[in-house]
Structure formats: structure tokens, C-alpha cells
Amino acid sequence: MNLVPAWIQILQALMTPLLAIVAGYIGYRQWHTAHQKIMLDLFDRRLNVYSNVRSALTMITSEGVTDQSLELLFEAEDKATFLFGEEIRSYLVDLWSLCVSLPAEDQGVLMRAIDEFYERGADRFAPYMRMDQKQVRSLREWLSERNRIRLSYADEKQK
What we know:
By secondary structure, the chain is mostly helical. Helix content is 80%, strand content 0%. α2 (67-83) runs antiparallel to α3 (86-101).
């Protein structure tokens, strides 16, 4: 003879799947948070490369080609190898080569390349800088949106 009431047995049976669902949801949210952190770290590294290029070109514009500007540009090109696609890396290699190989009297070509960077450089880097992943909504936000959609189909607007 079983001394435990039936409702307690039912409750015990339902608690195990409920706890499994809650644990799965918590695990999913932790994974999502870690993924967002990785995306933000990648964005920061790419922005650092872009900032180094911009700083180097600003130095070249104001002071001419110096060891410090070449070092910044080379560092940016080196990091771009693993953070960007081939087109960005080759663009930076060409820019660095232009800074190193041009004689001091033929700076017009370099200045045009720098102007081109200031005009279209951000557009070149932009596809890699977007943080366009969707924000995952909480269960409450999702239910609220579904309710808004449901209410929009109602014959009479409900409150």
C-alpha cells in the first residue's frame, strides 16, 4: 500500500521534465551570452586594426612617412591577416608597400591613396564591422510579441 497521495506523485513526475527544461533554457542563454561576447571581442580587435591604419595615415599626412607610422601600418596589416578577408589584407599590404617604396619627391600618389582611404576606407571595412546578429529575446518578450500579433488580427481591438 502506497502512503503518498496521488497528487504528490504526479507533481514529482512533472518536476523532473520541468527542471530539465529550465536547465536547458539556462544553458542556451549562457551559450548565447558567450557567443555575443565573442562577437564583441572580434569587433574590438577589428576596430583596433582600423584605428591603427587611420592613426598611421594621419601621422603620414601631418609628419610624412616615419618609422612609427610604418610600424603602426605594418602591425595593422599583420593583424588583418587573421581578422579580415583577403581583400582587406591585400589593400593594407599595397598601402604599406606604397609608403615604403615611394621616394620623398613623389608623395602625390601616396596622398591620393590616403585620400581614397578617408573617402572609402570605412566602406571597405564595414562588412566586417557589422554586429548584425539578432538579439535573442527572453521568453517574456517573445510571448508579448506573439500576443501583440494575435491582438492585431482581432476583429475588434482589445485592450
